[in-house]
Design brief:
Four copies of one chain form a homotetramer. Chain A is of the alpha+beta class and 369 residues long. Chain A is built from seven helices and 18 strands. Chains A, B, C, D: Pathway: Metabolic intermediate biosynthesis; chorismate biosynthesis; chorismate from D-erythrose 4-phosphate and phosphoenolpyruvate: step 7/7.
């Protein structure tokens, strides 16, 4: 039972601190014979990389991944895949003054209370930098999905930044890749940019966000009730991401306000199987996928590191006013989009393997070919 | 890896179907020397029992629990505790007609697609009746907490039923036990009762709800980042409950709309340790408890079994109009309150054991006493 | 992580004490659509039942199993299967005097030291009676194997009782079922019977035994290196059985004395795939099955409960001479044969499921049949 | 559920292949505040390193370990510790010819059959080189034990090489470190050296061995029945090591030949608790430690890579005579001694943590010191 691991058969253990020598992911249970290179994984890491636009932290971390094991001649072998990312842009001196201080909203104080020791540089293990390892592992899951279930698509996007929400009538999937916010509504992008600019530069503030991740093309039957339910695993995956405070499937919290008649997804028989009139359920019934779009939403709190002074204490209990300098994301939710996608990819692959077996039906033949 | 189990050291496996001979929970990892009787557990089961008021299903299930193992002379022994509840009020004939039909909003169709067989009586394994086993296991957790951490209080209540929410200014914890809705706001109880009455009797409809569970008095330091985080485990625990579609900690989904300045819980030094100006975090930072109230919220969708006709299909793909007769809860969220409490109790005990060890520091002495 | 559970996907949790109300097994991960009745399981339980011959304990426990969940209309549903065996022949008074005493060779003292409480009646949880639950679970595994891999045969037998070993030249599988010792060598049965008779009746003593279990017909490719190796799982399964002190695969401990040339199993190509000149490896290379017979051997220590007086202490540290009355097996190894078979069946099924997926490839079809 | 992991709370996942870029261990669950440096771990790795004497392989692998995470300012932080060993002396060309061939006694054929792909260089994942990662993880366990339970000693030694066994009357623990065989009997060392010399140089052969590992000073009460028993976990740990074919606790397989009177360890009350007249049990009763020496023994088969030709087949089924060149250990059992110790250290620490909690009772204080 590793408490730094997720997944049943596709089992990922992340390791590493923000300012240690390296961080990474030990990926066990990837099926054999999946084409996999560092380039494949780098593609996904680059989407999460800091410094892509002025709206994210200006730290320069190349986040270059190195595959240390589990791949032979360009294909996975079914053995553990070790992914390592060296930490390079470590300005540890930025963090010297917080060695004795607990930053409000951060895990400084709870790590100290729990462990009696903490790597305070950049938040150490509790830094959002840990999510780079998740994105790398998600890259492996993507490659395996491409091989085992090429019909499955997974895509995430921001639906809200602070008080500003998208207009779903303008939803355009193609737009997601066209702006700095993974925003599917071109109509709000300019407004979001101005809002965030002002917040960061003038207001010395930060803001929360809401992310949605959709799985399209997943077969019916994924999920393992009653405690390996697909929605249970997705909720845990999302809630385990730094700064996430809420998780929803389909109607989510809004389901509390509905009546049974409104909420029913009626069923008809289509050409390729059952079809549903609506998708209040978010593609999951009883913890098992229906074959519809699986819809996950999660809220990311505003970055706690802001230039505005906040009241706190030192380790010795004395009061201190904290102003968090450094190069921080004004809206950490932006970079949470690829993280959410990566976690969802891992969960979906995991359940496909539960369905098909550890090696996905592979066998080595012996005899004349 | 049992997919019907939850918990790390305090490990609960539920088993059983709605209309089988019995259902129950195998509870492994309860510390030894905890006073435990059937009466202790029955107390909690009775809170979830159907038929407590006109606002819940009128089925009559006594839900009497029998302890089959793990207790000797009134105390736990550290070995697995088997809890069995015989099913008694089984009107299987009520369900005969759904053997070939998939009820909208239910897991009938996905269980069939996944397993190729299903116990269709009352939803079988996917019935909310399974939560009785969770409540029984929660009763064991409550007894262990009373022994190991008597300062911990866990209480749940409804904060919303359909469109109607409580007024938090009228919040009164004592009121929770005084009405049929576990509602902490006496001012809305009458309105809720009328609303639900009309919905059930006139409108043949059902409604969703939102439940909040608070943990008071838990020590700082509980939670095991980065994947056994306390909020991750609470989110999974809540999302695994039947009909739950969303889960929040502290500010929850609303955190998306906040700025960093608004969201910061400032820290001061109190007499007994750190104190916080606010609790936007819901008592958890970086996945570890702060010592503040831990605040979990979850949304329960409206009961899918309603008397209003909905469109669906039979197993052979032909269309059918489904009207779900039988004795169903108009708002299954009411009975989800004790279920939520039970899941939270299990999670909290689990993390206390991770902190203190499997047997909670017990040792048998040999020698003159 | 239940510490009373074994198996990866086919996950068995045993529960119950010798003299409690009942004992049993929670079996999670059995594939759906496997024909299963109480009679199917009872068949295997009856082989372990006490009182089958004068060479085993004369306790009369019918060990009737009741299936409480997971089976619908004679077939498994893929949900947890609860197996319960009520304890009936409980002469608790036989054990009254050992409440304050630690019997040499038993777990009385270590359970006390660990838990600070113990159900002393008949050894409580540490009683060999717990293995009835394993045999019941093994019966489920046998049924699933019959369905998923009918070519697999699993059979165990005794190869040694105290100083007396079988002559492998006289090995006759058909003989195993013909005597009271599951002995494959008819030539030694009389001698064994006399030896055990004398030991029990005249010498007030007991004796150890060695059991061998063979898996025939298992496919190549089972096993999950490097820590879910097939031999690792078999070793753990055998060592977890009460009174087992050693476990071997193939040559086992004797491999220490061999040279590389002697130990090599040479390979040739047969009609149906690779063939091996010998089977020193016991059917497992690198933790993965080769397709040959899988050969597991384990040693069972002599029953610690004997009528001869042995020196010990009471809980208060004062000395006492212990004579264990009651109805005990003179050679508990005899009844360990069906237990060993059951554990092996569970391990083999588990690895077949790892290979094929949780539900073994089942899918429910929707549409005209 | 990682199938490349061992341990409950102290959880080690090994990764890496013989000739890949690196191999290592992800160590999760090490308690915080344990002093740990690369030098501490290197000490143990050096004992396993090839080329220490003419009796082991002459490959030159420095096996330098790098700590990539989980340590801050010389102390563990309670977060995952990543240990990496770069592979350096990779003569991959030595292995080119076995790409299409299955070496008898090796896992070449079963890995191929299972995965349909294998890194054939040096055995890939199935190489004994993987055990370097276990020794590194064992080094972490040793450091944690030194901190949490300094009275615990763990030491291994060879008791048999091929047909040659030690004389236990000459057992001298100090001698173990003085010779090339970790042999506690100075009187046989010369004979063993000559025997192995001849085997390797003249006979082109290899030989098996038997290793014993003793845990001295462990407290009573370690072990988690009935499936996390201390002997179960030790058996699995030992059997998972490459080339191990048998595992024993205390009397082990010889227990089969004993009577109950012979096998009883009688108990008396000593100054510091219970004492035992003998230790047939090997320090474990009912799966729980008694406080006596814990005695584990395991047999290592002879190295399969020998210069003598053996019959085998190619991937296409055609026959081939295999002569394994390269630099191989004539008795791989020698280097299995530190591996066995490392696995035992991990198991003992794991059970101490189960007893005391994940962080071993650590808490960070806030306030004036």
């Amino acid at each position: 039972m590793s408490l730094n691991s997720y997944g049943h058969l596709f089992r990922v253990t992340t390791w590493g601190e923000s300012h240690g020598p390296a961080l990474g992911a030990t990926v066990d249970g990837c099926p054999p014979n999946v084409p996999l290179s560092e380039t494949d994984i780098q593609f996904w890491l680059d989407r999460r990389r800091p410094g892509r636009s002025k709206h994210t932290t200006q730290r320069q971390e190349p986040d270059s991944v190195e595959i240390l094991s589990g791949v032979f001649e360009g294909r996975t072998t079914g053995t553990p895949i070790q992914l390592m990312i060296r930490n390079t842009d470590q300005r540890s001196k930025d963090y010297g003054e917080i060695a004795e201080t607990f930053r409000p909203g951060h895990a400084d104080i709870t790590y100290w209370q729990k462990y009696g020791i903490r790597d305070y540089r950049g938040g150490g293990r509790s830094s959002a930098r840990e999510t780079a390892a998740r994105v790398a592992a998600g890259g492996v899951a993507r490659q395996a999905l491409k091989q085992l279930a090429p019909e499955v698509e997974i895509f995430g996007y921001m639906v809200q930044m602070g008080p500003k929400v998208i207009d779903r009538n303008r939803f355009d999937r193609a737009e997601i890749e066209n702006n700095d916010f993974w925003c599917p509504d071109a109509g709000v992008v300019g407004e979001w940019a101005d809002f965030l600019d002002h917040l960061r530069r003038k207001d010395h503030n930060s803001v929360g966000a809401m992310i949605e991740v959709v799985v399209r093309g997943a077969p019916a039957g994924l999920g393992a009730p009653v405690y390996g339910k697909l929605d249970t695993d997705l909720a845990a995956a999302a809630m385990s991401i730094n700064a996430v405070k809420g998780v929803e499937i389909g109607e989510g919290m809004a389901a509390a306000a509905l009546t049974g008649r409104e909420n029913a997804d009626e069923i008809t028989m289509g050409e390729n199987g059952p079809e549903y009139s609506t998708n209040h359920a978010g593609g999951i019934l009883g913890g098992i996928s229906t074959g519809q779009d699986i819809v996950l939403r999660f809220a990311v709190k505003p970055t706690s590191s802001i230039l505005s002074p906040r009241q706190s204490i030192r380790k010795d209990g004395t009061p201190i006013e904290v102003v968090t300098k450094g190069r921080h994301d004004p809206c950490v939710g932006i970079r949470a989009v690829p993280v959410g996608e990566a976690m969802v990819a891992a969960v979906i692959l995991d359940h496909i393997l539960l369905d098909r077996g550890q090696t996905g039906g592979i066998r080595g033949k012996i005899g004349p070919s």
